[in-house]
Amino acid sequence: MNGEEKEPVIRLRGVVNRIGGRVINDHVDLDVYRGEVLGVVGGSGAGKSVLLRSIVGLRRPQEGSIDVFGEDVLNMEGSALRALQMRWGVLFQDGALFSSQTVAENIQVPLREYTAMSQPLMNEIAAMKLSMVGLPEDTARKRPSELSGGMRKRAGLARALALDPELVFLDEPTSGLDPISASGFDELVRGLQKGLNLTVFMVTHDLDTLKATTDRVAVLVDGKLKVGTIDSLRNDKDPWIQEYFSGPRGRAALA
Prior knowledge:
Elements: E1 8-19, E2 22-33, E3 37-42, H1 48-55, E4 63-68, E5 71-72, H2 78-85, E6 88-91, H3 103-107, H4 109-114, H5 119-132, H6 149-160, E7 167-171, H7 179-196, E8 199-203, H8 207-213, E9 216-221, E10 224-228, H9 230-233, H10 239-246, H11 248-254
Parallel strand pairs: 3-8, 3-9, 6-7, 7-8
Antiparallel strand pairs: 1-2, 1-4, 4-5, 9-10
Helix pairs in contact: 5-6, 7-8, 10-11
């Protein structure tokens, strides 16, 4: 990524999220630049997914502003909001596929929601997206229950890419996967990001994924956000950050 041409695709200022009186995100400021992969990490309950859900409009923060592609998402509605939402895709944990639908029908959900495409064209697009994420053609006719965990993640990613988004949100994309499947998914994400010039906002706890895919890392600790490269954060004085990056698992993953 060219450091001289940084364009913020996501811009958060003073974002506060409270749950049950507890501050989860405490006046968070963040810029996510076009073409980068940003990894968001933190302990269990630190507010990583809460922050993601706020950006994509599934949770309204109590305070602060959120701009995506220069648009104030907290004060948009109707056709303007729908047009903005077409520019991003979301992969939720475990794919979040509809169990009653085939994989092809799952991929076509955004197409039905946001477009008036014919069924034959939607079928073609679903087949193309399956190919992009490395799934065989016959996956289209299967139900999510017939897929392995890694295949469900890939099918969920195919759905996230259905509308050719510029920005992709990934929520714990390698959670629950074996090391080989997780490594394959990391390679897929990085390849797609480069090939499609995607901006990626990724919530994860996986150090191997951070090393393999991210340009920068944002760490949520006590509601606050610290952003940097892996190398810079390894020298941070916060005890949780030190343990995460420089503890036994961190040293092994980042060696």
